[in-house]
Amino acid sequence: MAQITLAKGREKSLLRRHPWIFSRAIANIDGQPKSGDTVDVFSAKGDWLATAAYSPQSQIRARVWSFNRDESIDLAFFVSKLNKALAMRQELLVPSTNAFRLIAGEADGIPGLTLDVYNNVIVGQFLSAGVEAHKQTIVKALNQVFSDYPVYERSDVAVRKKEGLSQTTGWLSGQADSKIWINENGLKILVDIEQGHKTGFYLDQRDNRQIAAKYCKNKQVLNCFSYTGTFGLYALKAGADKVINVDVSDKALATASLQYQENGFDDKNYQQINADVFKLLRQYKEQDIQFDTIVLDPPKFAENKGQVIRACRGYKDINMLALQLLRPGGTLLTFSCSGLVDADLFQKVVADAAVDAGVQAQIVEKLTQAKDHPISLNYPEAFYLKGLVVKKSI
Ligand code: SAH
Q1: Class of the domain covering 75-179
Q2: What tens digit of pLDDT does each residue of 261-290 get?
Q3: CATH number of 202-392
């Protein structure tokens, strides 16, 4: 096995069980590891630290598989990780849903792997050289733990390029209809695993949708960046008078309508609008249209550190407009899924937005990602989704 030796003092993060080894932390490589090969990692003093997957093109040059020297990276290793992840989730989720994130990469000890279960189909994203190299073994492990669940790959994501990998999709094991009905808190939701965003659905907002529902009874609700309208679905179930979903994806809005029909809601209570949220909020302001409850769940605005300032400007703009459109006593549920915009910064941006809006408001709840997207204490980067429930003063 090839060996990586770290530069002096660079073992600190590994001793804290953080799984990443950056290229600049490496002093020496013995042997000629290929992409995805397992390597031994040593400190400058020669102490064995970990086994890791080597990734020659990435700034994250290796990701740790194990801090236990006796552990081999084989079928039994992956089966054990899957079983542990499943056991943790069974306690957290059942019986509210039959769709959940089974593996959240580093936080579940399989760096670079995302696995989502939708009813009885598994969808995976293989985002690192290590999981790419072990793909067949991981699929075998899945077959063992979930005996007859088909496995579909959605590795059509740009981050693969950083690992020197091209984008790919397709069935890895078995086959099923690519449109899957799942059940979340008693609601029927349609997930398109081939054409939908990410692996098909935003499981991370499950708990927040239920929280949002509390603020929707007899209300007029504006659901911005709605995707397939799931916040709106919960709002209707809670007795909203009217839900308006806004998104730029016609396909997502069509799915929203289909879903609302399937759940038995009357189309006089909802409307799907294909529009740019930034523009539509301004238009509503000019027209003096107001709402009782507004959800802002935009896509990731900051992909890297260089984009954080621009991202904050975007957050401030939509939050300012939303606070202005709220009736007194109304509720704003505002989110940021940009990991690089931390919770404090996001709160400051929303506070700035309130100042610019000339609005008095208070935070009544602080929200985060659903529990099947765990935040490993050793890997705080796993925390990315932040939300605030903000009440406009009466
Ligand atoms: N709230 C959703 C997830 C939102 S993901 C849920 O709970 O499932 C972000 C969505 O924003 C995507 O569906 C994307 O199509 C949409 N989007 C991105 N930019 C937009 C814009 N400027 N205006 C309206 N929608 C936008």
Answers
A1: alpha beta
A2: 999 999 999 999 999 999 999 999 999 999
A3: 3.40.50.150
